[in-house]
């Protein structure tokens, strides 16, 4: 019995050592959770227990993370690093987290994202939250490179909302073949171009709400049509309902089944069209074709009127010529006689100057 009791005490002591909690953190072995929240940490703490599956290190002052930050944490499944002011993520930072499925880097200031920053062994990562994570919109180029080079072939959800993105590089998501949910809400995207969503054959939901889309041109419509199985959210965009938006309006009506907020899409500009349903916008509402037909008719009418005026002026001119035909004829004869006299004078002078005999007589008389 004594040996058994000693063994139990020894195991308890050993377990307590194994399950020691880092300073300024809270650990729960029963919940497999460690929380280091708002403790003014400058780096990822060491000594995190190996049983940890849920690791929350948030609200601190950590500026950089690298491969040495998460060693020995093979069991971590959910990792939250939000609101830490992280500005740099090195390549292979999360490579040792071979069980990682969810990574939250939201509310940081990522200015430098290395090419393989999100690589995880076994490609276990399923959810990546980068909402409010980019330092500015120029960081999207680093992000595009990292999404291309990191092993994210099994990623299911990507959140890029609230990042002030103005544009998306071509084929930025082409290596995320398993992606099912893409959140791009509350950015400043002004257009959808060809190959923007290339490679997203399995995408189920695309959120484009609260951007700066005034319309979606035909190029963008073709791009969205490459995602026939994707549910779309397009609300809270400043759609400008003027001539030229008809193809987009017709596309919305044709694609209502896949646009979850189609009924709520409204015109924002001009003021006369504000709060008019985008589904109701068409040639009848805008009157573009009617105005174009009217403009064509007015142009044709002006051409006809100009032809009539010119014809009338020509008739008057011919009539004036007819009335003054005698005077005109006399002037023509006078001009002909004057020209003839001038010509004869020049001809006479030429003969005098060129005749040899006349030239000798002229020279002898001079002598």
From TrEMBL:
| A GO term from the CC aspect | plasma membrane
Q: Specify the signal sequence span.
A: 1-19
UniProt cross-references to PROSITE patterns, sorted A to Z: LRR
Keyword Transmembrane present in the record's keywords: the answer is yes
Q: Name one GO biological process term.
A: negative regulation of canonical Wnt signaling pathway
Keyword annotations from UniProtKB, A to Z: Leucine-rich repeat, Membrane, Repeat, Signal, Transmembrane, Transmembrane helix
Q: Which residues form the LRRCT domain?
A: 237-289
The source's domain of life comes to Eukaryota
Pfam families to which the protein is assigned, alphabetical: LRR_8
User: Which residues does the UniProt record annotate as the domain LRRNT?
Assistant: 20-54
Transmembrane stretches, start-end: 303-323
Identification of the protein by name: Trophoblast glycoprotein 5T4 oncofetal antigen 5T4 oncofetal trophoblast glycoprotein
